[in-house]
UniProtKB/TrEMBL annotation:
Pfam families: RRF. Belongs to the RRF family. This is Ribosome-releasing factor. PANTHER family: MITOCHONDRIAL RIBOSOME RECYCLING FACTOR PSEUDO 1 (PTHR20982:SF3), RIBOSOME RECYCLING FACTOR (PTHR20982). InterPro entries: Ribosome_recyc_fac, Ribosome_recyc_fac_dom, RRF_sf.
Length: 59
């Protein structure tokens, strides 16, 4: 029984770490006074017929 509990605890720990990582990634996009390049990370635009990340359009 304790082995099953350890497996469940390890799975829960992995999922919690992924959730924290995702939250940190999302918090970068929050504007707090001044603009940052991370705010535009998830925006895609139509560039000559293909969807391209906004950050790559100027290049």
């Amino acid at each position: 029984m304790t082995e099953e509990i350890q497996i469940v605890m390890e799975m829960a720990k992995e999922k919690m770490e992924k959730a924290i990582s995702h939250l940190e990634h999302q918090l970068v996009k929050i504007r707090a006074g001044k603009a940052s390049p991370g705010m535009l990370e998830g925006i895609m635009v139509d560039y000559y017929g293909s969807m391209t990340p906004l950050q790559q359009v100027p290049t």
